[in-house]
Amino acid sequence: MPKTKAQGIVFGIIMSYAMAFGMEVYNTAINQGFHLAGAGFSAMTNLVFADALKEAAFMGLIVILFSGLWGNRAGAAFAARHCDPQKDNPYVCRVMRQAGTVAVMCPTMSLVASVLFSVVMAGMPAAQLPAIWVGTVIKNFPMAFFWNMFAAAPFTHWLFNRLFPSSR
User: Looking only at Cα atoms, what is the longest distance across the chain?
Assistant: First the structure.
C-alpha cells in the first residue's frame, strides 16, 4: 500500500484507469450489441478494446477527480464503520474500503456517463436524466463491484508492488 503522497498518487492513477478501462470495455460491448448476440459477450471483437481505450483516456481523468474529491474518503469512512484494523483481518478491511468506494463511485460515474453519453451526445431530454441515471447505475453497479474486487484492485496492487517493492 502507498506509504507516501507520491505513491498514493501513482496508486490512484493506476486504480482509476484500471476501473475506467474495465467499465468502458463493458459499456462499449453493450453499446455495440454484444450482450444481445447469440454468443453474448463471448462474441466481442478486438474493436471493443480500441473503442473503450479512447473513452477510458478521458473517463480515467474524471475518475481521478471524483475519487479525489469524495470517493476515496467515503470508502475509507465506510471501512472505518465496518472494520477495525486492530482486530480484523487487513484483507477484510481493504475489501470493505473497496466496497465503500464502489458504492459511491459507481453512482457518481454513472451520473457523469448519463450526462455525457445520453444527454449531451445522444440528445436525450435532460428531464429524463433521473431515469437514465438510475438505469445506468443498475446496469453498471454489478460490473463495477466485481471488476473492482477481482480485476482492477488485484491488478493495481500487483503493479504498484512491482513499481514500489519497498511499500509491501
Answer: 52
- pTM for this one? 0.94
Q: What is the tens place of the pLDDT at every residue in 118-134?
A: 999 999 999 999 999 99
Q: How many whole angstroms separate alpha carbon 122 and alpha carbon 124? A: 6
Residue tagged 454484444 (cell numbers): 34
- Angle between helix 72-82 and 90-113 (nearest 10): 140
Grid coordinates representing 141? 453497479
Contact residues for 60 (Cβ-Cβ < 8 A; gap 6+): 13, 16, 17, 20, 21
Which among 55, 65, 153, 67 has a CA at the least distance from the CA of 113?
A: 55
At position 168, the amino acid (one-letter code) is R
- Residue 20 CB partners (closer than 8 Å, separation 6+): 55, 56, 59, 60, 62, 63
pLDDT tens, 79-118? Answer: 999 999 999 999 999 999 999 999 999 999 999 999 999 9
Phi first, then psi: give them for residue 86, nearest 5 degrees. -75, -30
Q: Return the pLDDT at 168.
A: 72
